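Chapter summary example: a protein plus zinc ion.
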Amino acid sequence: MKGLLYYGTNDIRYSETVPEPEIKNPNDVKIKVSYCGICGTDLKEFTYSGGPVFFPKQGTKDKISGYELPLCPGHEFSGTVVEVGSGVTSVKPGDRVAVEATSHCSDRSRYKDTVAQDLGLCMACQSGSPNCCASLSFCGLGGASGGFAEYVVYGEDHMVKLPDSIPDDIGALVEPISVAWHAVERARFQPGQTALVLGGGPIGLATILALQGHHAGKIVCSEPALIRRQFAKELGAEVFDPSTCDDANAVLKAMVPENEGFHAAFDCSGVPQTFTTSIVATGPSGIAVNVAVWGDHPIGFMPMSLTYQEKYATGSMCYTVKDFQEVVKALEDGLISLDKARKMITGKVHLKDGVEKGFKQLIEHKENNVKILVTPNEVS
Ligand SMILES: [Zn+2]
Ligand SMILES: [Zn+2]
């Protein structure tokens, strides 16, 4: 089949001879991919000189699948079911789905040929948080061959059906919006509460949508780049340029009705200033959620900035199937506007052009782009 194959840093190749994945287990589902979004994680795998980050390093195997490079990337995808294993009951050929892409302990049983089977469930998987699995991997990052290809085979448990009202391109956004949805859940966010989103890149914009899906009150997006502020504004957030004043934190705090800080703040940038702001600009008992992916280095932090007003700082790690289901429901019910979600799609390219017009476009023209979707079929 046609696919993009990841061999290592700066080495993704288009191929028309990728082995087509086959149904091997009773719970396998084979999907014909419609659209697959390029994520910041994919870009990191492509560019990071110390990589791979999530993919198995050269000469090592994925802890869940036992697979080695090269493999197809792509974990943000929608498609149509074309074949199912003998035990599959929740989806059938013809159903359109979004795919929850985590791979965790319970997926290991699908790879009897390639990985040891006697490891049991890790503590996180036992406690119902497979997104925090000790062996966490992803379909499209080593856990299974991913969505930059014509076909994917993955477990039934990861399939979330798309209703007729959600088209395939929006279906490919369910994954990034679920990342944000999980973060909003981590903030124990209540209807009417106020939220600060730090950064107007793809994760920040998805967080604005997820907050709207949670009936947020005021949403402010703090972002220094003008084009990104415009995107945030179009999605319905109030915007703020933190580079224009000396004490941005104080100005931000005063932007909520009580002038005392936000109920929740989401760091979608991952720089020391935004981490500090996420704590300082929340009010009493405020919750600061780190959604960004950081490099492996420490930063300065004032513990008393939490203590004085008993604030919380936590992280949010990808998503669960429940997040996917709730995002699909929010899109279906109109809590998240399809038109606003579609504004995140700044390009659609054919699989063959995925590296040149997708990956490289996102790296070289970062500010002008949010999501570029890759499709193995005709681009409409
Ligand atoms: Zn992603
Ligand atoms: Zn686990």
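Key point: Residues 99 and 159 are 5 Å apart (CA to CA).
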